[in-house]
Each structure stands twice: as C-alpha cells, then as structure tokens.
C-alpha cells in the first residue's frame, strides 16, 4: 500500500503511489464484498479492515484523489462490523475409520460384533480427536460417543463414514 518508486520526478512518484493505493483499496473492497460473512467471524480480519480504513482516512488528508473511494470503504467496514453475529452453526464432523495394525494375519480374522474400531473425528475448526466404539455400533451410538468426547452434542452431523471391510 505504501510502495514508493526510487526514481522519477516528484509528480511521477506521487502518481505511482496514488495508483498503487487505489489498486489496494479496490482489492480490499472486493475481498470484503466477497468474504464479508467470513471476515465478520475473524477478529484479525476485522482489526485489519478497521486499521486499513483509518490509514486510508489519514491519507485522504494529503491525497485528495483518494476521497472518492473512502465512502465505499467506510460503508463496507461498517456493514461488516455492525452485522449481527451469525447464530451458532452446526459443527460438521468427519469420521474416518483407520487401522491400528498392519498385521496381515489379524486382517484375516473374522470381525465380531464385540470388536472395537478406532475413529478419528475431525471437526470443522481443523482439530480432531479419537474415539473407540464397538463394530456393531449404530450411527446414533457413534454420534453419542462423539458428543460425550467433545462435551457437546449440539449440531453434530456425520459428513462421511467409511469402513475398510
């Protein structure tokens, strides 16, 4: 945003700076327009937008040509920061069965209902945990085990459940 050429007349340097600032402002406006809902949930993005707005406001005092983009930037920042927070979304959970042993002899054993399988439970916030449940468990029982492990059963959804046999 503050790039300055090292060569050229003062007018050329000023034109270069103005064009760069305008491009960056347009980019930020497009970014905020496309991802406004997601940015609202991200404190760092909101802090950046507010800091960026203050910086552009300060620059309009010295570069009057930037004033034309300031109202649009102000509108986007206010719109995103004033929107009510979205209601708590459901937690999307991905369950993945994985083998705990590569022993070929063990793979040839018949699977009994009392055998247990280990699942990796992936959450939307990019964390995961593991649970151990009997092979004969129903989907409802698996979800219940996940809810117990995560401490909350609200909004749990199985996105995918796979089995190797």
UniProtKB/TrEMBL annotation:
<dbReference type="InterPro" id="IPR000651">
    <property type="entry name" value="Ras-like_Gua-exchang_fac_N"/>
</dbReference>
<feature type="domain" description="N-terminal Ras-GEF">
    <location>
        <begin position="1"/>
        <end position="81"/>
    </location>
</feature>
<feature type="domain" description="Ras-associating">
    <location>
        <begin position="115"/>
        <end position="165"/>
    </location>
</feature>
<dbReference type="InterPro" id="IPR023578">
    <property type="entry name" value="Ras_GEF_dom_sf"/>
</dbReference>
<protein>
    <submittedName>
        <fullName>RPGF4 factor</fullName>
    </submittedName>
</protein>
<dbReference type="InterPro" id="IPR000159">
    <property type="entry name" value="RA_dom"/>
</dbReference>
<dbReference type="InterPro" id="IPR029071">
    <property type="entry name" value="Ubiquitin-like_domsf"/>
</dbReference>
<dbReference type="GO" id="GO:0007165">
    <property type="term" value="P:signal transduction"/>
</dbReference>
<keyword id="KW-0344">Guanine-nucleotide releasing factor</keyword>
<dbReference type="GO" id="GO:0005085">
    <property type="term" value="F:guanyl-nucleotide exchange factor activity"/>
</dbReference>
């Amino acid at each position: 945003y503050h790039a300055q050429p090292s060569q050229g007349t003062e007018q050329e340097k000023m034109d270069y700076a103005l064009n760069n600032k305008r491009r960056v402002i347009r980019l930020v406006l497009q970014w905020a327009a496309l991802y406004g809902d997601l940015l609202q949930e991200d404190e760092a993005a909101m802090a950046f937008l507010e800091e960026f707005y203050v910086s552009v406001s300060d620059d309009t005092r010295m570069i009057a040509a930037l004033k034309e983009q300031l109202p649009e930037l102000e509108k986007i920042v206010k719109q995103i920061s004033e929107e009510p927070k979205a209601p708590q979304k459901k937690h999307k959970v991905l369950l993945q069965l994985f083998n705990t042993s590569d022993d070929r002899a063990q793979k040839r054993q018949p699977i009994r209902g009392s055998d247990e399988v280990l699942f990796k439970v992936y959450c939307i916030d990019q964390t995961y945990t593991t649970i151990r449940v009997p092979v004969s468990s129903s989907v409802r029982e698996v979800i219940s085990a996940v809810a117990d492990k995560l401490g909350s059963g609200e909004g749990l959804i199985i996105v995918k459940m796979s089995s190797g046999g």
